[in-house]
Design goal:
The complex is a heterodimer.
Chain A (H helix, E strand, L loop, with lengths): L2 E5 L5 E5 L1 H21 L4 H10 L4 H9 L10 H6 L7 H31 L6 E5 L1 H21 L7 H10 L20 H21 L4
Antiparallel strand pairs in A: 1-2, 2-3
Helix pairs in contact in A: 1-5, 2-3, 5-6, 6-8
Chain B lengths: L41 H6 L6 E6 L6 H12 L3 H14 L1 E7 L1 H13 L4 E5 L4
Antiparallel strand pairs in B: 1-2, 1-3
Helix pairs in contact in B: 2-3
The chains are: A mainly alpha, B alpha+beta.
Chain lengths: 215, 129
């Protein structure tokens, strides 16, 4: 069973996770990472452009500046939640996407990669998972990304929907598949597991927020 | 926003076992956090000159934890805990809140930052609504 994050004397933050919990978090993170890459047609080239933009080499920065800005509109509803419209004005939203989405994709993928890396290095079985403050910030954002996708698959649209989904599960009913926007109805088959994952991710995030200082 | 998980237990929900009874958290680290308050964006009006200032709006969503929204507003904008809390409650109860304002460039980077934290933010110009 997972144990909450606690601060350590060396400034790091540690929690204890079971092997199965670590495995499921990494698996969900990889699936979400793949989903984003596929849906937005992310290539290694487009990620390299961002790295070049932050490079110390002025020539690399210049090249990045002239690289083409491509920003595919998200198709998957969960990816749309991760990369929402920045304005009700379509032209403004499109421009924002063109200049900002590539960076945002890179940030979210880096967050997920950092989450996986810090778990992977602990090896198998129940272990402590220890994070630097920098890694903790990656975790906070990555946990948000994962919760957003899982919530979408569970059909969470409004405040209180998750509690309803969980209650329906607890009383052994099927989630009504006629719910608005519920076009991935096949996902409800694994609803019990998804609910447990969502609760674990939420609990971990809350636990981490409690030990982190905002400044 | 979700209140789910606002009372973390020392032992988390397990995918494998039945939920454990609640335990009092062993380390209460959130109290007495140092606060660095900063002006809440009014000063940015000046840098926008005579043009209508732009505003960063954060919208309510059913996923983000209340504590996370407060944390992000404190962390990114440098707002005090009290101010971040007021904004979070406005987002939660009114569906949206203006969290910063200023030049278009400033608001663009604020919106981008909010998106990087997974909050749903939009930009608008004063007088649009």
């Amino acid at each position: 069973m997972a144990h909450a994050f606690r601060p350590r004397a060396d400034g790091s933050f540690a929690c204890r996770l079971e092997g199965e919990e670590k495995a499921v978090i990494v698996q969900v993170a990889q699936e979400v990472s793949d989903l984003v890459r596929l849906d937005l047609a992310v290539t290694e080239d487009s990620l390299a452009v961002r790295r070049a933009a932050a490079s110390d080499d002025p020539l690399e920065r210049l090249e990045a500046q002239f690289a083409t800005h491509e920003a595919r509109e998200p198709g998957d509803p969960a990816v749309r939640r991760l990369f929402p419209e920045a304005s009700p004005d379509e032209a403004l939203a499109a421009e924002f996407r063109r200049f900002g989405q590539q960076d945002l994709v890179a940030i979210k993928l880096e967050d997920l990669a950092a989450l996986c890396e810090s778990i992977d290095r602990t090896g198998p079985g129940t272990t402590e998972v220890s994070l630097t403050e920098d890694e903790a910030m990656h975790w906070l954002r990555a946990l948000t990304t994962l919760r957003t996708v899982v919530a979408d698959r569970l059909g969470v649209e409004r405040d209180g929907d998750f509690e309803t989904v969980r209650m329906l599960q607890q009383i052994g009913e099927r989630v009504p598949e006629a719910a608005e926007g519920e076009d991935e109805s096949s996902e409800t088959a694994g609803g019990d597991v998804m609910i447990a994952i969502y609760e674990l991710l939420s609990w971990l995030q809350e636990s981490l927020i409690r030990v982190l200082e905002p400044f | 926003m979700s209140e789910h998980g606002t009372t973390p237990r020392s032992e988390g929900p397990s995918l494998l076992h039945a939920p454990s009874p609640d335990f009092a958290p062993s380390l209460a680290q959130t109290e007495g956090a140092p606060e660095r308050s900063r002006s809440t964006g009014l000063q940015e009006r000046e840098e926008a000159g005579t043009a209508r200032p732009w505003r960063t709006v954060v919208w309510n969503d059913p996923i983000n934890l209340m504590s996370y929204v407060v944390f992000v507003l404190q962390r990114y904008f440098g707002y005090s805990r009290e101010h971040a809390d007021v904004l979070m409650r406005r987002i939660h109860h009114e569906g949206r809140a203006i969290v910063s304002q200023g030049s278009r460039e400033r608001v663009e980077s604020d919106v981008q930052a909010m998106h990087s934290f997974g909050l749903h933010a939009t930009m608008e110009q004063e007088g649009e609504d």
